Amino acid sequence: MTAHTPPTPPFRDRRLPFAKRVDDLLARIGLDEKIGFLHQFAPAVERLGVAAFRTGQEALHGVAWMGPATVFPQAVGLGATWNPELVRRVGEAVSKETRAMRLKDDRVGLNVWSPTVNLLRHPLWGRNEEGYSEDPKLTSAIATAYTRGLRGDHPRYWRTAPVLKHWLAHNNETDRDTSSASVRPRVLHEYDLRAFRETVEAGAVAGVMPAYNLVNGRPNHVSPYLREQLRTWTEEELLVCSDAGAPSNLVDSEHYFDTHEEATAAALRAGVDSFTDHGTDGSKIVDRVKKAYEQGLLTEADIDAAVRRQLSVRFRLGEFDDHADTGAFDTPEHRALAQEAAEQAVVLLRNDGVLPLAPDSRIAVVGLLADECKLDWYSGTLIHRSTPLEGLYERFGAERVDFAEGVDRVRLRTSTGAFLYVREGGADAPEGDVASLDPALLAGRTDLPPLTTDDVGTELALVEWGEGVLTLRAPDGRHLSVAEDGYVRASADQPGGWVVQETFRLEPHGKGHLLRHIGTGRHVSVAADGVRVAEEDPEIFELVLVERGEDTVARVAAGADVVLVVAGNDPHINGRETEDRTTLRLPTHQERLLRAARAANPRTVLALVSAYPYAVEPGSLSALLWTAHGGQSAGTALARVLAGDVSPAGRLPQTWYASDADLPDLLDYDVIGGRQTYLYFEGTPLYPFGHGLSYASFSYGDLATRVTDDAVHISFSVTNTGRTTADEVAQLYTRAVDPSVPRPRRELLDHRRVTLAPGKRAQLAFEVPLSAFAFWDVAHGRWHLDPGPYDLLAGGSSEDVRLRTTVVLDGDPVAPRAVRQRGLDAADFDEQSGIGIVDRTKTAGDAVTPVGDRAGELLYRACDFGTGVTEVTATVAGEGSVEVSVDGGPALAFLTTDTPSAPYDYTALTARFTATGVHDIHLRLRGPIRLAHVGFSG
């Protein structure tokens, strides 16, 4: 008798399409099991052989938070390469390392939360380092390349499943979980949605993560755009993963819902499929979903929809087919790619001929970042490292390079006359390789002796990072840090961690200073058992200056042929996740060092290594370069560019403004009305979008265009007229010559990075769909192409135009608004002043309301009243008035409600109003009133 072999269940049958296999598996999972899947850490279903699964693995520029990995340049640096093919290879390397690391550690996830496609609208955003560009076209090109690399090239299985961050219009850390971005429809469609849409449509995206903030008064985690926009862009099942803690924010900080059951149900119905909340503990989310289901707020079909999308991703990852992908880790190819990416990310902003450096140059390297290889919150742990100083030693020889960090060296004297003392050996590394340990782990150690006091004390390096925030470092290189027990130790390799424990602030107090620890908010106190932070008995310190940083800088600068000042930011301080910057200026300490270097030696080169732009005065500099923190090969890459081994070809991915006065308010998301980014900015930037110099020169010619039914075909040539092989980034822009609505000053259509030897010429061809010339017509809720002339501009940046021509495109004139038939949705205005957009209901729609105490103004152009109307009706909530006028004349109708109401309790106000033909309508809103719609009849 032969044993009976159970049939293979359909979900294990590789011959079936994924959709049928998902349906079969879903039907086998019980309701309680499906509810368990909704938390980030989904438990196993052992009876079906389904393993545990978690969403989320950070991989922004390398595998993060999981120990040693190849660290590539920050995302903004990858954006600065303007090289999608390079970025695709970086994504491929990251996906291979993810797979390889997972084989050794099952905590490493294959659902990677990257890239970030939020547009770099405002350079003070703390997370500027995480985005690619202020331009949606460039952002989508780089993001698409990265997702393709992360996905891999297998025809059936994905190596990793990328999730785009952060949906939607997210550019502020200040009050990020309670602030609302007011995003008018044109900005929504032409700007914020566009980067997501083009990346999703390219076909290598597994899902998105909603952002913490609200958009138009509604939290992103219950955004109707997930259903109305995102899920219409592809036939793939997209997985929506919440941001950490955001589901609870819907009640706890945003107070958008009264109960967590309501909030969880609303998020699930809106399209959130995986809830990242309460760490690894899924019990609270499970309990909320169960109660919501019992209360009738959810159906099993709602739960099934989310679980189906999760399973779809897991099948694509090959989980149910035992698809083997061993990946690759820290290979020579990955190391070479990290260096290539770092080299391509360097942007030369100014050069009076001092660069490239002569081989026999004597170089003074100075500055707080000269011997640093900084990590950020989304970095992996360095396996290899290269600082600018190390790179120059390697390239020019240590005998030709002099170094001065430029830190102030101080002793801190207590009120008793003793000094703070770091016991020798206090920073001894734990067993193992220090380079393989995260700074946060070192900072949290409690096995090291705390600081004490003695008669001589320890000379500490004091670095001020701006706004009075400082770090203190012992002679052996370890930063003073505070662990959970409150004691101060010299224990951290670098500042780091979610709450940075290595930053302090000196506060004047009498004839001395209190030393406040920023991480805890407490002052440093000296006790018999050691130095600690405490709520009481703060120590009053006298700051004894041993040596000024600018004095050491001046000494080494004076004897050099050229001075390289390396300045910038620490990615964990004053501008990071949870913290926006407040200024474009360099920290005062670094400005002092730069002035000292320039005074000692006019041949001064400034290299900014930073996660964001700065406003500097380049006029007295011989050269100025910028690079984002470049990962493990940052120093080698910078040295090779300075030496001329590599001609710089990075280009700015965002506008560098000349001063803070050029910036809009951080929370002003109206790039059109606020004239923001290179698209609309009318001032003179410090350096424009797309700017970057080379050691070669290039000429442009042979411009030709051809218009077909669905595209504009453009070609031109680029020739290297210099004496060195170099890359050029040829950029193609457009401008509507006679637009019917405000349009960008110029807008990127496409670009190409090409490598040319001296005298060599490349012919570049672009096919631009006509849709690229369209704008969102708010009057009719659709894309519209204006007929008429469009300039085509080719050159080396948004302002460096070498070739120009004009094409005439066919289109339809914008039709007047048919207000007699459709009325006016309030948020579909053409212009506004003093108005914010808010949620019409908790589930869908927009309304408008005055911002602050002033009246708000709205303009709707070309409203067609046909043969005439005699009545106007305003759908409003709240209390206040709406005044209606025509063509800027006096008010013809007044609609007022004096009865306060709930935000979503709308009523219709009616008044007499007569108009015929086509006119502009002006509305003035007074008081805390919400206007959703205006209708006309009669």
UniProtKB/TrEMBL annotation:
CDD domains in alphabetical order: beta-trefoil_FSCN_BglX-like (cd23343), CBM6_xylanase-like (cd04084)
Cross-referenced SMART domains: CBD_IV, Fn3_like
One Gene Ontology molecular-function label: beta-glucosidase activity
Keyword Zinc (UniProt): no
A Pfam family this chain is assigned to: CBM_6
Record-level GO BP terms: arabinan catabolic process; xylan catabolic process
Domain Fibronectin type III-like residues, every copy: 728-798
InterPro entries reported for this sequence: Actin-crosslinking (IPR008999), BXL (IPR044993), CBM6 (IPR005084), Cellulose-bd_IV (IPR006584), Fn3-like (IPR026891), Galactose-bd-like_sf (IPR008979), GH (IPR017853), Glyco_hydro_3_C (IPR002772)
Stored SUPFAM superfamilies: (Trans)glycosidases (SSF51445), Actin-crosslinking proteins (SSF50405), Beta-D-glucan exohydrolase, C-terminal domain (SSF52279), Galactose-binding domain-like (SSF49785)
UniProt keyword annotations, A-Z: Hydrolase, Signal
Gene3D superfamilies in UniProt: 2.60.120.380, Galactose-binding domain-like, Glycoside hydrolase family 3 C-terminal domain, Glycoside hydrolase, family 3, N-terminal domain, Immunoglobulins
Superkingdom of this protein's organism: Bacteria
Sequence ranges assigned to domain Cellulose binding type IV in this UniProt record: 818-938
Protein family (similarity comment): Belongs to the glycosyl hydrolase 3 family.
Role summary: Catalyzes the hydrolysis of a non-reducing terminal alpha-L-arabinopyranosidic linkage in ginsenoside Rb2 (alpha-L-arabinopyranosyl-(1->6)-alpha-D-glucopyranosyl) to release alpha-D-glucopyranosyl (Rd). It is not able to hydrolyze alpha-L-arabinofuranosyl-(1->6)-alpha-D-glucopyranosyl (Rc).
Protein name per Swiss-Prot or TrEMBL: Exo-alpha-(1->6)-L-arabinopyranosidase
